[in-house]
Amino acid sequence: MVNSENTKAQMRKGVLELCILSILSQGDAYPTEIIEKLKETKLVVVEGTLYPLLTRLKNTGLLTYRWEESTSGPPRKYYMLTEIGVTYLKELHLSWYELVDAVNKTINKQD
Amino acid sequence: MVNSENTKAQMRKGVLELCILSILSQGDAYPTEIIEKLKETKLVVVEGTLYPLLTRLKNTGLLTYRWEESTSGPPRKYYMLTEIGVTYLKELHLSWYELVDAVNKTINKQD
DNA sequence: AATTAGTACTATGTGTTGCAAGGTACTAAA
DNA sequence: TTTAGTACCTTGCAACACATAGTACTAATT
Predict the structure, then answer these.
(1) Nearest Cα residue to B16 out of B41, B37, B43, B42
(2) Beta carbons of B38 and A10 less than 8 Å apart
(3) Is B79 helix (H, G, I), strand (E, B) or coil?
(4) CA dist., res. B51 & res. B32, Å (int)
(5) How far apart are CA B52 and CA B65, in angstroms?
(6) Are B102 and A43 in contact (CB under 8 A)?
(7) Which CATH architecture has domain A16-103?
(8) Which of A28, A44, A101, B95 could be disulfide-bonded to A78 (CB atoms 3.0-4.6 Å)?
(9) Which residues have CB under 8 Å from A16's CB, separation 6+?
């Protein structure tokens, strides 16, 4: 039996970084909020994936964060893009479009 | 220092399977030939990546192969899609378009 | 006939990543 | 004070791409 779920998961890899940076470029957000926004566009991500990724992006200087009190629970960690992050995001945008172009060319070739 | 090369490599992951199956749907091919075709569309893949992937696809029943003599070197292993492979490729096509759509939605959202 | 270059296939070890699973901590309502 | 809800964090595992090194076959050169 062949299962395409695994491959679909594989295809998602690598684009998460792009998506998270994109979401943050539209405004600061805390992890649970980011997961919600990704769900809206059918990109399901779980905590065990997101938290380590955010930490990695913070450690490489693409993100920073600030704590903010919440009226409905524990404090939230709002992440935001750094200047380096903004620049980097532009590069990733380009890479994404190049990839889409390359794959579509390969898929559609009928010669 | 931030390096987008790594992320670009990550984004390529997962779509390779789709690309290889697509190439084979256009006609049987041997590994070196597949690498050449991928290069044409700017998807650089090396042997250490391709051979294990082909073996995996063969073991899951998506591909088979036949040996064919060559006049300019050792015999070539021509890979071809099985019926299951053809069906599976259609699924992957869909998954790919869904992913592109989801990512583009996330990227382009400006609300 | 032996060596070299070119082509082709194969195997091993490593680093990165996504994810499942489990855990901690704060707030508010019952 | 217990329970439910929200939020953040850690650990261990499996899959994958890739670098590296190696084997084997053919043909041309010496």
Answers:
(1) B43
(2) no
(3) strand
(4) 10
(5) 14
(6) yes
(7) Orthogonal Bundle (1.10)
(8) A28
(9) A43, A45, A49, A53
- A71 touching chain B per CB within 8 A: no
Q: What is the pLDDT of residue A73?
A: 86
In the block, which residue shows the tokens 């690498």?
B35
Q: How many other C-beta atoms are found inside a 10 Å radius of the C-beta of residue A69?
A: 8
B83 in contact with chain A, both atoms CB, cutoff 8 A: no
The CA distance from B19 to A12, in Å, is 15
Which residues does nucleic strand D approach, with CB less than 7 A? A 6-7, 10, 30-32, 47-48, 51-52, 54-55, 70, 72-77; B 9, 12-14, 16-17, 45-49, 52-53, 56, 71-75
The pLDDT tens digits of the residues spanning B57-79 come to: 999 999 999 999 888 788 999 99
Instruction: Look at the domain B17-105 and name its fold.
Output: Arc Repressor Mutant, subunit A (1.10.10)
Tokens of B40: 């044409």
pLDDT tens for A23-54 read: 999 999 999 999 999 999 888 899 999 999 99
| Helix, strand, coil percent content, chain B, rounded in steps of 5 | 60, 10, 25
Residue A2 has pLDDT above 70, yes or no: no
